[in-house]
Write a structure and sequence with these properties.
Layout lengths: L1 H26 L14 E6 L3 E5 L3 E11 L6 E6 L5 E6 L2 E2 L5 E8 L6 E10 L6 E10 L5 E7 L10 E11 L5 E6 L5 E6 L2 E2 L3 E8 L11 E4 L1
Length: 227
């Protein structure tokens, strides 16, 4: 009986020792993702600029810098939320590899995006650590549509048969500096009407009306169109 009891106790002791050893091994198993073990690591994120002002149809970028501490050495994901309709915001790379610290945040504002102020959130995440965030304030400005108007002086001409007449064309511009093409229509038979220059980036042009000897007497309305 004594020998059997001793054998049973020896086996029990060995079993207890194996169980304790297994628990200890689990407690010291390192995080395969570089999280620092035990969840003690942390990450941070900061932006090169906290505000971004863009016109409709334009792009802009800021640099996101991630940090690691407390033993965390793994990859960090970077994403952006809060972009309004008509605006896209992306991070490149979207996963910052171990040993790297930077990602570029690109914000693209479409032509249809509503003007206003918006709050975007840039988030960093890693395995086994709490997320970190940084705020990015976006201001979208409306782009004014260019336009122009034309005028003529004088607004009426009296020209004898076989003679010429001229009138000054004025071009008033608003947020527009491109070329304006001018065309005159409505001249009756025997009358020639031309614009010189017919295309201009300046603010003036001229209408010349030549009345031939065969032109019938009477009145006509000429129309000048600018595009």
């Amino acid at each position: 009986m004594t020998d059997h009891a001793r054998v049973g106790l020896w086996r029990l002791a060995v079993a207890s020792l194996v169980l304790v050893s297994a628990c200890k091994k689990d407690a010291t198993t390192p995080d395969p993702n570089g999280g620092g073990g035990g969840g003690s690591g942390s990450i941070s994120i900061s932006l090169s600029a906290s505000t971004l002002s863009l016109d409709q149809g334009k792009d802009g970028t800021v640099t996101a810098t991630v940090g690691r501490s407390g033993g965390f050495t793994g990859a960090i994901s970077v994403s952006v939320t809060g972009a309004p309709s008509g605006v896209t915001a992306t991070a490149s790379p979207s996963s910052v590899a171990a040993g790297s610290t930077a990602s570029t945040i690109k914000v693209s504002v479409g032509g249809s995006a509503a003007a206003g102020s918006y709050s975007l959130t840039v988030k960093a995440g890693g395995s086994g650590v709490s997320d970190a965030t940084a705020a990015l304030s976006l201001t979208v400005s409306e782009v004014a549509t260019g336009s122009f108007t034309i005028s003529i002086d004088p607004t009426s001409l009296s020209v004898q048969t076989g003679a010429d007449g001229t009138a000054a064309i004025g071009i008033a511009r608003t947020n527009f500096t491109g070329a304006v093409s001018l065309v005159v229509t409505g001249a009756p038979s025997g009358v020639t009407a031309t614009v010189d220059p017919a295309s201009t980036t300046a603010n003036t042009s001229a209408l010349k009306v030549a009345v031939g000897g065969s032109a019938a007497a009477g009145g006509s309305t000429l129309t000048i169109t600018g595009t």
